[in-house]
Amino acid sequence: MAVDCTKAREVVERNFPGLWFVVEAILSVIATLFIEDIINPASLFLIGAASSSKGTVLDMLRGLIRIYWSDEFTPSAFVSETANKTEDELKKIDLLPRIKDKALVVPELAPIFGARSDVLKKTISVLTRVLDGEGYTRDAATAGNRGYLGPHRFVFLGASTPFEDHVWRILGKLGNRLCILVMPETDDDDFPKDFSRVLREEKSVKEKLEEARVVVCDVLDQLESLKVVDWDREKDPQEVVEKISLLAELSGGLRGNIQRVRCDNGQYERGFKQIESPKRFTILLYNIARGRALVNGRMNIDDSDLELVREIALSSCPYGRYRLMKFLISNGGEVETIAVEELLGCSKAYALDLMRDLEELGVVNVFERTPPQGGRIKMIQLKPEYKAVLLP
Questions:
Q1: Per-residue pLDDT tens for 236-260?
Q2: Domain 324-390 annotated CATH 1.10.10.10
Q3: Which residues of 4-28 are buried (b: 16+ CB within 10 A; e: fewer)?
Q4: Buried-most residue among 107, 219, 277, 305 (CB within 10 A)?
Q5: The domain defined by 6-231 carries CATH number 2.60.40
Q6: CA proximity to 158, closest of 112, 101, 104
């Protein structure tokens, strides 16, 4: 029996206008647990300001089937260092065996990604290994070598405020396994302007949340009834798969690092650039597209799944680059320097630096144009191949 999320969509949109897209994204990631040939764990972190409803979306999952909720999480919990426990007791303590075939939900990740660089590097290196899906072992003075080998599939869901640029630099060096979704603007963003209407509403937020939780639970129950799906990849349209691959390539460029080299005069010049291979991210995006298809009652992907893939591909990069890309798309793929300055509230030098970075990373072209009144204006333009998958 195919999954039907029609009622869930109606209830979520009625109670939380504009949030179904995010709820559907979360369900799509969880749905990857039910596709047999998926080995690599999928992740999705919701990024937004403190009042962007990301916590509301995750709260819809609290207490539901296949959900492992953790309000406080550290990567060292995957495999503990405890020495005075038996192996059977340790399996009940270690996080990794307890989240196998489940969705680990951590509603607040900002403290983890806001840690010192040395701590953050260790954290990301552990996450990188665990998100390979092949288990994790560690050596500790108190417990020696211990851990778990072999397939350990799960999904990782969380929320945070936007990452600082240094976090992305570390992610770029260690290999990115994280999918990001920037929270969309919703009616809640106008909450202070419409406070009196909110007070007059018959339903409380708690009641609305419970209604949403019931219908989300129903979708998860339907997924559970599918057991494990044997996916026929041959039925997935080749043109859609190729677009997913192109979006993964774009996202790799947006996440790329350009090393700065200090010269004798104290100034910094661009050094070598580091862009990850799009192969792994293509697989992650393809798997999430398949999860969305499953949530919508299909056993093959189609063009309708590309909207979610597109948003994740654009979101999974430094926030300033994300905002610039969204601005480019809304302006037909071409803007001038002064518009970038106004968008980001930055200096002309910073705007030009950002534009040149994206040019070197292979995402855009930078050129000059002569306006009717004379002079020269710097312009930034999406590369033609990316226009095809980003513009309407």
A1: 999 999 999 999 999 999 999 887 6
A2: yes
A3: ebeebbebbeebbebbbbbbbbbbb
A4: 305
A5: no
A6: 104
